[in-house]
Amino acid sequence: MPDTLSYAQAVTFNRHIVLPQIDLGGQEALLNARVLVIGMGGLGCPAAQLLCSSGVGQLTLVDDDTVEHSNLPRQILFSAAQTGQLKVDAARDRLQAINPDCRINTVHTRLTDDALVDAINSHDVVLDCTDNSASRRQINRLCYSQNTPLVSGAAIRFEGQLLVVDPVQSSPCYQCVSRLVNEETLSCVEAGIFAPVVTTIGTQQAHIAMLLLMGTEVLAPGQLLTYDGLTLNWQRFTVPSDPYCEVCSHK
Ligand SMILES: [Zn+2]
Prior knowledge:
Helices cover 36% and strands 18% of the residues. It has 10 helices and 8 strands. The structure holds zinc ion (ZN). The site of zinc ion (ZN) has 8 residues, from helix 8. Zinc ion (ZN) binds next to helix 8.
């Protein structure tokens, strides 16, 4: 039996429920949703905060790192007093204070393929909030193999990008896109990142995921959305599937 909103929850989320595009049904879809957030850096912090505050019922946070002072400008869930704590523990404490009804699971290791498959299978949507291409390729490959939608975000310098991968719709995958956009090999440590750009992209990942969970497709699978933080321009591209892609071409 799916959970239904309590009276107190209906009051809390009233500003959502009065929107006809959401209504009680949409808010209860969020209440019953399980979202896997991989990476609790500059993308994962605002994404997890919005998912939690907006009434998503269950979040699993994955990150193997600790809070550092140089993270604080863009990893907006954390405080200076949490320096040295595991990011997933620091995030859980902050999120639980925002919405005590949200069930929050934490994983503080980098997941093997088998463990990631198990995690993907027990969630409805996955947010890739990582910052390295090896993790991105692993998450993309395993979400595709498990038919689970993936909302991928990335940001560096003043540039951001968003992509939805939906294996059920046989959409192009992250690997198809990465061959076209000259996949970034620099880290934010080397290249720099403007804090509002990465938080904008993380916010949009939560936005897209919540609409997906409520049954609204806001960014068609295979469309790449790019953001220029110097001009505030968004651009939308339709990415073709790579017919030789080792991840998605055999579906
Ligand atoms: Zn592909």
